[in-house]
Amino acid sequence: MNKKTIISASDSIILKLKVLAEEKESVLRIKTIIDSMLEGVVVADTGMHFELFNKSAERILGVGLSQEDPSKWAKIYGVYLPDQKTPLPVDQFPLKKALKGEIVTGFLQYVKNNQRKDGLYINTTAAPLRNLNGRITGAVAVFRDVSKEEEIDKAKTKQLAVIAKEKEDTRKKLAVTAEKLRLKAKKLAVIAGGKERIRRKLAITAKELAVIAKEKEDVRRKLAVTAEKLKESQDELARKEKLAVIGKLAGIMGHEIRNPLGVIRNSIYFLNMKFKESIDEKVKRHMDILETEIDSCDKIISDVLEFARTRAPSFTETEINSVVETSISNSNIPKTIKVETNLGESLPKINIDIAQVKQVFSNIISNAIEAMPKGGELRVTTSQTDSFISIAFTDTGVGIPKENIDKLFTPLFSTKTKGLGLGLAACQNIIVAHHGKIEFESKEGQGTTFTVTLPIYKN
User: CA neighbours within 13 Å on the CB side: how many for 256?
Assistant: First the structure.
């Protein structure tokens, strides 16, 4: 850096110091001028903090500069509305209005505090202070004592005019707002009316849909009932067709099969008698097998004939317990099966076809025995319920598979290797002819209970 550059920098600093000195002197000169004014002058920044408070302001108000919150100014300086009673609201202070961009002129206030006990009226003018960009940076207020009568009246009139104008402006704004609210309320009423009409239409539609749904449900139920009746009719037709086939089969078996079986049985009897002393053991065993199979065939023929020509019951008054005991004693029950009976005491006599009911009981007992190939327990119980007597046969056998439960009383249905599946169907026909019913409950792997219910008196 050369000497010439150092001198230039020094000259620049000296020049700036001179400018600052001149500016400071200007500020001091302005402050002196403001302090010499008779009117009170105050300046506040945008935060409502005083930046200037001249001597005349302190003299007129009786209180000097305070940096308390503006909400306390009315109390600190004792500033009231012209009625001398109402503290001046903070948003009514001229400085506050000026900071909002308003220019306030002729604003009348009443001041009364410990230093101004007699009170005085001041008239205030205020305006915003703006920078070069037009942004508000503060506000200035100028006020003077106007306690003389003529000035007070003039200021009061002007103040009242301002207040009246403000009230009128407020009234007009309220009127405009009220009109907007009225129009909005009218529009909302129209919308509400439309919504109510839509709601009513929807309610009517919902009722109509409910009626339609009910009608559809009624139709569905009727169709379901019709379908069920149709199925029953079809089942009944199939049953009758099967019965017709069984009837024809019974006629054939009764004449064309039973007679040859009788001839074979007689031939076996003759051979047994002829070679009684010299018959070979092996031959004897095979002849016994023939007799056993003939008995099985004869049993099948008897079942078919019995089912096909089920006669009307021949009712006889008897005790049901004796029929049960006879049926048990006539059954070939293995020693591996324990029989327990719990026969009700003092049961009334009942009108039944003894032979047919014995056939039913024997068939149920025979099925129970076959369901317990490894042995088990058979419990037989009799009891009275109202005008009916119930006979229950409970076994601890293998139970009935779920897929066979609905087919149990169907003619020609059987799960046995031998037999035609007519036993339970014939039992059901007999009990129905007695105006009773036959029911069962079964759990696979646990056992089955067949319950026969018969009326005490014949209907």
Answer: 6
